[in-house]
Amino acid sequence: MKYCVLIIDGSAGEPLPQRGGKTCLELARTPNLDALAAGGRLGLARTVPPGMEPSSACACMSVMGYDPAVYYKGRAGIEARSLGIDVGAGEAVFRCNLVNTDGGRMRDYSAGHIGSDEAGELIAALNKELGSDDITFYPGVSYRHILKLKGHGDALKAVCTPPHDIPGQSVAEHLPKGEGGAVLRDLMARSEIVLKDNPVNKKREVPATTIWLFWGSGRAPDMPAFKEVYGLSAAMTSGVDLLRGLAQMAGMTVLEIPGVTDGPDNDYAAQAAGALEALEGHELAVIHVEAPDEAAHGGDIAGKIAAIEKTDAEIAGRLRAWNRDDLRLLAMPDHPTPIELRTHTGDAVPFLLWGKGLEANGARRFTEAEAAKTGVSIGDGYKIMGKLVGGTA
User: Do 204 and 251 fall into the same domain?
Assistant: First the structure.
């Protein structure tokens, strides 16, 4: 038996009044996901445990079959693992976004989705001007980077706000607060001076005006290997460091597929082909698509719909047509990212289980409302992996 998990990040959402009260999943043309839903088992799963932050780290950990309440200890540590950054005793890491602020407000949490090459130049400049034995900046993908601090353990006590949670809102009101916040605020303020006259920013329509620090953590916790827990060798493809870090923590092979990105330029066809090729040597492949979530954070309805439709045509279509009679598929968002909120929620998301031994339960479309109609619900989202690789759901 071969297994595939398709995570369509942030694709779930809420009804849009300006679009007839439909969600983006309902508005999107998804003939392949709909056909899989009609032939499989549809339901709702809650991937974020009560009281935990509705982050992709928690939610994707659940989809991968690990209980976030046990294994989630902070997102930055997971991303640091992906980048090969060692986090020792007395050290802390923070997500370091390059953002655009204007007039004292958060204008763009991604500095116009700055490219990795330009961002790398800015991170190098920050290291040159602000770096020391105790302060190191590490380049990541696009606007997402990592700051490591030594000897500033109190910084982990700071109350920080993700920049994508405050579009158009006052920056001053959402700077790191409380014990440990001072060192973070100081670095953010000093970064503005470094970035202001950098040649990279002078030619950008949306310059990176400052860094934004949040999601602090220490060393990422060890998780038991996926093969140890589920008895299957596994591989993952994703365009973001978070998922690659989770894959490494789970002992999965991280697939390097040219053209896989976090945005609308993602090569969906190559991602699907690479995952199917990996299934020749592995028993399970995880395909993580980031683009719908990025569009939703930007309030881009058309962009989110387009990303869902491309995922359906180029990935779900290839999985559906793959000439194997021993394939099982799990397709689902990790969490909702409603367009009007432009950030994540912890609400339940639709899931689709399809393949050998999984009987249909009367669904017609892969949507939130259709999943709710089935009456099938999984309260502990991390248990869904057992439904995929175990017996009947």
Answer: no
Helical (H) or strand (E) element with 167: none
Q: pLDDT for 246-262, tens place per residue?
A: 999 999 999 999 999 99
pLDDT tens, residue by residue, 19-35: 999 999 999 999 999 99
Give, in degrees to the nearest 5, the angle at Cα 284 between 283 and 287: 150
Q: Where on the phi/psi map is residue 59: left (φ > 0), alpha (ψ -120 to 50), or beta?
A: alpha
**How far is Cα 280 from Cα 316, in angstroms, rounded to an integer?**
18
Buried b (16+ CB within 10 A) or exposed e, 351-373: bbbbbeebeebebebbbbebbeb
| Domain co-membership, 126 together with 268 | no
Query: What gap in Å lies between CA 172 and CA 104, rounded to an integer?
Result: 7
Name the token pair of 305. 């719909």
- Structural domains in the chain (count): 2
Please spell the DSSP secondary structure of 358-391, one letter per residue: ----S--SSSHHHHHHH--EESSGGGHHHHHHSS
pLDDT over 80 (residue 359): yes
CB 97 within 8 A of CB 109: yes
Phi, psi for 172 (deg, rounded to 5): -60, -35
Same domain, 157 and 53: no
Residue 24 dihedral angles phi and psi, to the nearest 5°? -65, -35
